[in-house]
């Protein structure tokens, strides 16, 4: 055991501390095993202790203690991140914020919540009040607001509201990692240092996020003979501002065959588009479908929204989950296609790789422009081959956010300069989630 444990017990009390091996093991893991590259590298990493604060005030108490002892702190929301974001590479303390779960204020414009509030619970509460979240990940039932802001990017709703960087975080309360942690109130453009930063430069205890008015969402699957028709339809719907929507997800056959709970409702052999659109948009969807030979298929009426397994359970990174369940040799990439030239990029990829790469796009509005983001499914053979595929994508102008690394510099999509500046100011001894964001100059100074 490590020397500081007894002092930690005295500081926070046993009811806020987990020391048992199995509990430490469980709460030191996220969905890193999604990646065949990360799985062997992270499987043996675990914290020395898990601290579960119950009040905001306990957070700086633990941070100050850890700072004085030089103990790394890795924050955990619900641990649904899929690149080892919340895996403590150097042991130390995992700070589990799941009990900071109070919704503090809801107005017509925003919700102010503690970081551990689950997005699914918040969405339910909002919908009861005729409101709803703007954006949430497909893991919303489990994922926390803080974890989404610090480890996610976008999801359901991003086709209308963009991703986390598009004004979807209004304010954050941030604690620094110092002898006496400072409580910062961050808003406006300063938030870019904290969004998708894996908790490397501060602990967020509270967030203010914008919300919108509740919509009756109908879920529809439209099917096509080939993927080209599926993405043409999806693009047309994505661009059509008369259709209010939350989800536009084209997937290439055989990806729909992986969706076991709904496969009986789907046409064998057909590429598909999974949609959430407002009640009353049926005719507009049918017109877009007919234009490219598509057929309206499985429909889930709006009164069943969020009461049964929904189409969003097969989109974003859930698509990858169903692929993995079907065939563990499948993996994925995160790619950004060109907003106009994407059909050409897609045909270049299919010509080069055939069924080694299966396409899954997510249309979203990024900085106001409709773009096809992609989470293609890749048949994994070796790391070398995976990086050959990545190199090809890059060579034809398709951007990659590598999901097979925990390093923010390589896989992240935040603004590095702002993140590094906040890291220097807030975490001078590099104790927050070490290994995820490196500052060479500062680390060398410490070693000297
Ligand atoms: P965690 O995994 O616990 O944490 C994520 C990161 O943030 C970690 O680095 C952690 O240290 C840090 N962190 C957590 N809370 C705080 C805090 N309060 N202060 C400072 N740092 C903190 N992501 C998307 O963006 N969109 C998707 O649609 C999506 N779909 C997914 C589907 C599947 C099947 C899986 C496995 C993952 C998916 N993800 C997606 C990734 C992930 O589920 C989401 O980003 C989710 O919002 C993370 O929330 P969490 O509470 O589980 O965070």
Automatic annotation (TrEMBL):
Pfam families on file: FAD_binding_4
Keywords, comma-separated and alphabetical: FAD, Flavoprotein, Oxidoreductase
MF (Gene Ontology): D-lactate dehydrogenase (cytochrome) activity; D-lactate dehydrogenase (NAD+) activity; FAD binding
FAD-binding PCMH-type domain sequence ranges: 43-214
Entry-linked InterPro entries: FAD-bd_PCMH, FAD-bd_PCMH-like_sf, FAD-bd_PCMH_sub2, FAD-linked_Oxase-like_C, Oxid_FAD_bind_N
GO BP annotations, alphabetical order: lactate catabolic process
UniProt-recorded name of the protein: FAD-binding protein
Species for this entry: Paenibacillus monticola
Lineage: Bacteria, Bacillati, Bacillota, Bacilli, Bacillales
């Amino acid at each position: 055991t490590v020397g500081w444990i007894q002092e930690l017990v005295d500081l926070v009390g046993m009811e806020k501390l987990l020391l048992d091996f199995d509990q430490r093991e469980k709460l030191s893991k996220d969905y890193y095993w999604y990646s065949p590259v990360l799985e062997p590298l992270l499987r043996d990493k675990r914290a020395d202790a898990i601290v579960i604060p119950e009040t905001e005030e306990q957070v700086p108490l633990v941070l100050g203690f850890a700072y004085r002892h030089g103990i790394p702190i890795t924050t955990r929301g619900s641990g649904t991140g899929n690149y080892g974001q919340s895996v403590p590479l150097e042991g130390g303390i995992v700070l589990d914020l799941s009990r900071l779960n109070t919704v503090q204020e809801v107005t017509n414009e925003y919700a102010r919540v503690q970081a551990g509030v689950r997005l699914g619970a918040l969405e339910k509460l909002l919908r009861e009040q005729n409101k709803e979240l703007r954006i949430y990940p497909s893991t919303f039932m489990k994922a926390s607001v803080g974890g989404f802001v610090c480890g996610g990017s976008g999801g359901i709703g991003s086709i209308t509201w963009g991703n986390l960087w598009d004004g979807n975080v209004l304010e954050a309360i941030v604690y620094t990692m110092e002898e006496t942690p400072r409580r910062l109130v961050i808003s406006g453009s300063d938030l870019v240092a904290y969004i998708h930063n894996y908790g490397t430069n501060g602990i967020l205890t509270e967030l203010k996020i914008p919300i919108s008015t509740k919509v009756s969402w109908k879920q529809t699957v439209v099917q096509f003979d080939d993927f080209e028709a599926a993405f043409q339809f999806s693009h047309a719907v994505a661009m059509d501002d008369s259709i209010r929507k939350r989800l536009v997800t084209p997937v290439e056959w055989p990806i729909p065959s992986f969706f076991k709970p709904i496969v009986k409702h789907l046409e064998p052999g057909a590429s598909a588009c999974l949609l959430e659109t407002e009640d009353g948009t049926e005719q507009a969807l049918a017109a877009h479908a007919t234009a490219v030979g598509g057929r309206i298929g499985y429909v889930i009426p709006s009164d069943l929204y969020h009461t049964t397994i929904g189409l969003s359970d097969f989109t974003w990174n859930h698509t990858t989950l169903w692929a993995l369940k079907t065939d563990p040799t499948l993996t994925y990439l995160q790619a950004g296609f060109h907003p106009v030239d994407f059909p050409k990029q897609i045909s270049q990829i299919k010509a080069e790789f055939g069924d080694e790469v299966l396409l899954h796009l997510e249309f979203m509005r990024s900085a106001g422009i409709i773009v096809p983001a992609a989470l293609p499914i890749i048949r994994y053979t070796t790391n070398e081959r995976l990086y050959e595929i990545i190199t090809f994508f890059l060579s034809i102008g398709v951007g990659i956010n590598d999901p097979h690394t925990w390093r923010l510099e390589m896989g992240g999509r935040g603004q590095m300069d702002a993140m590094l500046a906040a890291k220097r100011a807030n975490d001078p001894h590099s104790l927050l989630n070490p290994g995820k964001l490196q500052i060479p100059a500062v680390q060398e100074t410490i070693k000297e």
